[in-house]
Amino acid sequence: MKQDIKIPKGYKNSPLGAIPEEWEVKKLGEIGTFFKGKGVPKNQIINNGYKCLTYGDLYTKYDFIIKNVKSFINKKTSFISQKINFGDICFAGSGETSKDIGKCAAFIDDKNGYAGGDIIILRANENPITLSYILNSEYIIKQKSKYGQGYSVVHIYPTQLKKIKVALPPISEQQKIAEILTIWDEAIERQNQLINLLEQRKHGLMQQLLTGKKRLKGFTEEWKTVKLGEIGNTYNGLTGKTKENFGNGNPFITYMNVFSSPKVNLSKVGYVNINDNEKQNLVKYGDIFFTVSSETPKEVGMSSVLIDHINNTYLNSFCFGFRLFDFKTLLPEYAQYFFRNKNFRKKMYVLAQGSTRFNISKKEVLKIKIKIPSILEQITISKILTEANNEINLAKQKLEHLQQQKKGLMQVLLTGKKRVKLNKN
Asked: What is the pTM of this model?
């Protein structure tokens, strides 16, 4: 026998579960009108003119709200495009997975604009910011994912979005919720701006200190020029492995670990089975890893340095290792910054060969000439750049904390689990 669910005082049962008594459950088709964006060819996107929201920008750049649109179309193109007004909710009509479809954001730019193809627009008489947050909440994502059609690309259409059920607070409560969440959005935006400034400062320091354009006080000794092949040698990553060998066993440093960070992150390793009789290269402290190939020349040969002392760990097969003969000429702590510097990166992607995918030769890498300071100057430069790195990491931790706070607020405010206090006139 089905047990009755106890509804708290001040709440009522609904198709979406218990909601506050003043709230209403409505289908999106009941609260507004849907429009479909019209395709705008890439060659029609210009640097100035009428603002145009493209599918790519909506899908990758905007969360919850859309402002400061940077894509434009001319007057002629605007006549054949779908106009969007302040407060319209813009949905991505497709995605890579069923959970990605219908990602949406409220258009609150300072000027009206136009919508490109594969964008669906909802024009409703609700607070756009609160509605956007609601339409990105978990219970809505679950509904949208049920309507997804397709495999490699999943689509959703206005006829399906119209059926989505939402729990709507009164307009006055929507406004208050929007004010609260906007405070967190603004704090998150300021924190992102701070992180960008800190990263720009770090890149500036790297460009000055790692090239000798700016010398630190007390250092006048001339820098030494060496070929990489004179101070170390290369070795291969894993060989002879199949898909079945991965998932457990010994740790190995993944391709993405090397590609994404100048310092190997040991919390993000993969695992591989190694037989007792196998001859595979083990990594060790001070090794410098390079990616062998990439989709573009500018991303090939990305580096990461192992700063930790570890045992029985291997390197993935799509990277190669560079092991210094000793640490008398180059320090690993300095190398993690040096090989990511713009000047060295230029030397690396000049070596890239290919058309659809680009590769580099280990032999050619060993011929690269580098100019490096004394060990003492390397130590001093490394300390400065590490301090800059630590500042960035602290700022990112604060950003993550703000994002978690906002996520928690959304969970309680957009479901009515926690009510906001309204100002009494």
From this structure: 0.81
